[in-house]
């Protein structure tokens, strides 16, 4: 068996999986490679970047962020990350479906991945909506 025979026996999905794995490892390696260069330039603070001055000129508050504002920012960031994860899962499921070559088991697993990622997104957004409604009602009830 030659190398050419081995390459031909590997399915497209397996080659794509290997390629994606190598791309992720390459990005992580590049991040680890360039991290010391960024740190070596000194600490990046708001004092030496001019961000506070720019924010004040734009009319934003630069100090004394309240706990609810901070929690809201963290929740929005988490929802953004969940949205990115959902997008990656949908694209990956679609690619698995397209590269299934008509194999019903591969199509079923791709369909299941897409279905479960949609269910996960619905659960996360419902939990956010319910929590937002309940907390909003409690706050309105205690302030009146």
Mind sketching the topology for me?
Blueprint: H1 3-9, H2 12-40, H3 46-49, H4 51-58, H5 67-98, H6 104-143
Helix pairs in contact: 5-6
Quick structural gist:
The protein is an all-alpha fold. It is built from six helices and no strands.
The unreliable regions are none
| DSSP strand content | under 5%
Counting DSSP E segments of at least 2 residues, the number of strands comes to 0
Helix content: over 70%
User: C-alpha Rg, in Å?
Assistant: 24 Å
> What is the 3D shape?
flat
Which sequence of SSEs, written as H and E, runs from N to C?
Answer: HHHHHH
Question: What are the defining features of this structure?
Answer:
144 residues, 2 domains, 6 helices, 83% helix
Could you explain the architecture of this structure?
There is one protein chain. The protein is 83% helix and 0% strand. By secondary structure, it is mainly alpha-helical. It folds into 2 domains: 1-63, no CATH class; 65-144. The chain starts with a helix and ends with a helix. The mean pLDDT is 79.
């Amino acid at each position: 068996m030659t190398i050419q025979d081995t390459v031909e026996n590997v399915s497209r999905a397996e080659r794509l999986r290997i390629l994606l794995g190598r791309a992720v490892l390459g990005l992580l390696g590049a991040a680890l490679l360039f991290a010391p260069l960024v740190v070596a330039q000194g600490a990046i603070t708001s004092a030496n970047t001019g961000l506070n001055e720019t924010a004040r000129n734009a009319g934003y508050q630069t100090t004394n962020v309240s706990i609810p504002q901070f929690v809201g920012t963290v929740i929005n960031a988490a929802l953004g990350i969940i949205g990115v994860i959902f997008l990656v899962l949908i694209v990956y499921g679609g690619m698995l479906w397209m590269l299934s070559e008509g194999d019903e088991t591969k199509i079923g697993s791709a369909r299941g991945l897409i279905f479960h990622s949609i269910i996960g997104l619905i659960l996360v957004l419902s939990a956010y909506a319910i929590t937002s409604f309940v907390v909003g009602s409690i706050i309105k009830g205690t302030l009146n």
